[in-house]
Amino acid sequence: MLSQFVSRERVRAGVQVSSKKRLLEEVSDLLSTYSAELDRDTVFQILNQRERLGSTGIGEGFAIPHGRINGIDQPIICA
How far is CA 59 from CA 2, 3, 25, 64, in A? Predict the structure, then answer.
């Protein structure tokens, strides 16, 4: 069930960013704030590296940035 991977604390609405980099910084902040095992800089670096391989954008302003972090064996989702 999706609810086991996402919590209210990791959901933000109405966030406006000026660049893809700023979006990845926001996501990194959000994930690291509510997940003690995640370091903000590590999350940002991994998301940024993944984005360099190919855009995770799916159109109409939506994207699904993602990456793998050593030691994390369950998905952690923010929105």
Answer: 23, 25, 20, 10
Paired tokens of 38: 């995640």
Tell me the per-residue pLDDT of 8-64, one tens digit each, with 9 for 90 and over: 888 888 888 899 999 999 999 999 988 888 999 999 999 999 999 999 989 887 888
Rounded Cα–Cα distance for residues 58 and 34 (Å): 26
Query: 12, 21, 22, 66: which one is catalytic?
Result: 66
Cα dihedral value 20, 26, 29, 34, nearest 10? -120
Residue 8 annotated as catalytic:
no
Handedness of CA 44, 48, 51, 53 (dihedral sign): negative
The pLDDT assigned to 41 comes to: 96
Can you tell me the distance from the alpha carbon of 16 to that of 49, in angstroms, rounded to the nearest whole number?
22
